[in-house]
Amino acid sequence: MSIDPNTIRRRGTGLRGHDAERAYPGLTLFAPTTGGGAVYVIDMAGTVVHSWQMPYPPGLYGYLTERGTLLYNGKVPNDTFLGKTPFMGGVVLEADWHGRVRWEVRNPEHHHDGILLRNGHILLLCSTALPEAIAERVRGGLGGTEQPDGRINADYLREVTTGGQTVWE
Predict the structure, then answer these.
(1) Beta strand pairing status for 122-129 and 153-160?
(2) Most distant CA pair in the chain: distance in Å?
């Protein structure tokens, strides 16, 4: 199949082009941001092989685990700085092949990434406001991107159990 070089004509939904000579064979997992929680596995021809309907819109990261489950990061809007921005986080869950949620962990500081660790815990990428003494030492940045009260956020990692208990951060 030849790929139309005109990107305007290629816009839209569905499989827009496939160059079998250059593509790595296999399946693709994706969750469209307009799908309201729909997750798809498609083959190289764009045929849906499997799908799930998750209880939250998608975050920015998810994958199939070694045991055949779906690890899914979802977006849960809330009243925090992160919950009002497009960081797309707030919840991570594991669903079986039939879409049943095995566990779910919510964290309002989780902003988009969460992975399942080999020990069965979850590592969350989180963000929180820096202490004022540290924030005032930060040079540069883009003015106006701070929180409404002028605070600056920074990332941190948090390991949690599937029950939501913090192991370390």
Answers:
(1) antiparallel
(2) 58
- The H or E element spanning position 20 is none
Q: Residue 22, SS3?
A: coil
pLDDT digits (tens, 9 = 90+) for 26-56: 998 988 877 789 999 999 888 999 999 999 9
Cα–Cα distances (Å) from 126 to 7, 84, 89, 154, in that order, read 35, 15, 9, 8
- Integer CA distances (angstroms), 115 to 1, 58, 59, 79, 97, in order: 36, 15, 13, 25, 18
Element (H, E) at 17: none
Q: Which SS3 state, helix, strand or coil, does residue 34 take?
A: coil
Q: Which residue has tokens 């979802």?
A: 74
Cβ partners under 8 Å of residue 129, min gap 6: 81, 135, 147, 151, 152, 153
CA atoms 33, 56, 116, 155: torsion sign: positive
pLDDT of the residue at 48: 93
pLDDT digits (tens, 9 = 90+) for 149-169: 777 888 999 999 999 999 999
